[in-house]
Amino acid sequence: MDEKDLISRIHTLVDEEHRLRESGEHTDEERARMTELETRLDQCWDLLRQRRAKRQYGDDPDEAVARPEEQVESYLQ
């Protein structure tokens, strides 16, 4: 996934998350989906940062890989 596709994916996930959050009362299914969206967004943002760091330091950004959920979710904000 190139940077343009990654940014587009981030926007799509953010839009869905905003729609869900604005809908008032949430079902268990909606809460689960919001949690999933947050995780996917964390993975996308991490991958984007990896790609940009690799490019900045002369490495191939296509070598960046999405890290597992367990890893990105344990980062300190």
TrEMBL record:
Q: Matching InterPro entries, A to Z?
A: Uncharacterised_Rv0898c
Pfam families recorded: DUF2630 (PF10944)
Which residue ranges are recorded for the region named Disordered?
Answer: 54-77
User: What is the name listed in the Swiss-Prot or TrEMBL entry for this protein?
Assistant: DUF2630 domain-containing protein
